[in-house]
Amino acid sequence: MTIEHVYICASEQDLRYTCCCVASVRRWYPDIPITLLKDETSGPYDTRELEEAWDVELWSGERPLPGRGWAKLEPLFGERRQRCLILDSDTVLLGRVIERLEAANADFVVESVGAWEPQLAQHYLDPPLLEKLDPQFRYPGYTFNAGALAATTGLLGRADFEPWVRFDHPPHRVRNDAFGETQTQGILNYVLLRAAQEERLRFARVSFMLWGWSRLASRGAQAVTAVRVADGDGLPYLVHWHGRKHKLLSLQRNAALLRHYERAYFERVASGRRKRIGRIAKLLAEIATGRATEQVSHRYPCMPPAPKRLRPIEEIFVIGTAEDLRYTRCCVASIRRWYPDIPITLVKDESGGGYDTRELEEAWNVRALAPDDRFRGLWTKLVPLLDPTRVDAV
Amino acid sequence: MFVGPVLDALEAADADFVVESWGGRPADWTDASYGYFDLEALERLDPAFAFPGYTFNAGHVVATTGMLRLEDYMPLIDFDGTGRPRHDCFEPGDQGVLNYLLLKKAQAGELTLDRAPFMVWGQHRLPWRGPHAIRLGHLTDESPHRYLIHWSTAKSKFFLRMPNGRLLRHFERYYYSRVPHGQWRRGWRGVGLTWRVLTGREPERVRWNPGQTSRR
Does the model's ipTM exceed the 0.85 cut? Predict the structure, then answer.
């Protein structure tokens, strides 16, 4: 079955890896359609260079693409049956790997290494817990890394994920304990394994992924070298640098592959060499001056603009003690910056002794409340929670 | 500390309680001293409790008041004696008990509980560039950051010694802008604090409430 399309997940943080990935796909498949699943949940960024020089399209769906890895699922939910390859941006092809995947007679083809058993629950899924939550589920004894998989669209829907995922903006997992610490990998493993168990889809495991962090062979028939990738027939594998990544490619293990594909990428870009040097110099300067982190980071929240106001928040309670009064002042000032009129009540924990908050009350329109002895110390927070005369409050 | 209009996003949730969505990791539920509860011991205490697989930090909760009652807490907390949870399965502070009560009541259908990513840890390194960077100049009415920042670990009384202390200093400046003789008072209080810490009259760290020993 022919793989017709390649989807690549991209975010601004690892755009440099995306460029390498696209260049590697085009090295072996000059004509295959490539679509970027561009995560712009934290703001727009420019990919025109990729689109124009490398013939890459952007995903255009009915709803905006979710961030933090969830975009990977979107192609699966299409109505049309299509065989495709879905890649994380931190992968590069070493050769004509797609033919190997096409040879497997299955709807989904995944890599065959999967989890290291001691870290199964941390990075993938917790089989005993899942078998408890879903008594029909039988763990088949393997998992797969979801950084690259051949998929058939139209076989799975959001409903297959929804008992475990809330497809809000942004999507999030219903449980934190069953599917490891990654956002989508554990849940994708479970849903595919479950569907395969029910024989709703055909599933195959093929050894096509090498780990970017491992020592790749430099000699012999299986040697993975930039020269072989550049001039030879390559190897029918891809390399995946999963996990933490450096923005400075030279610090990555097996960096020669990434540097090779980055060079190839800039060969098609106007003034490519100059741009490449300029961007590396800019990145170095930003890291040196503390304006950028050296590692790719995805730790940020992405609350979208609120579509509508369903439950108004009418009052804010701030719990404070004499010890952290300086923090309390900052907290109140920050609330007033955006909400000048909302009632704020300072619930004073005076278990360590009374303290003066008149300045806060007068200058910042805060009402102070000193609870009775029973609710001092640890339980000051209960005062607003238990007061039945009040309504929604933070 | 707010860094943008976070309430606007929270008001979109149609639930009685809205909590942050990072929560604890499964390892945090194996020992009460890790900030929540010892799940195995809790399930022995309340066999009907079906743990939903997540917890939340209780430093910021959107709540509908009056839905929890003192009677809910009475079996769990020894208000008149030690002032601590009655059972060792809970962490010594309020977080474990509040987690249990809200999860339990949500399970029983007595209230609705939602999770939203509206919090960032203040002790983490926040980005300095790109769309996620929190620039002081962006903390305006149009601030793109719909979340709050929570410094949940041990705190210094000197903002210069805190991770992301520039945000604290920014809002402290803003605080004193409304206080009569604010700049003078700010400077004087800073000098006073430094003097008291240097002479050993006051610890440099913010102390927890008496008896509050949780790692949170």
Answer: yes
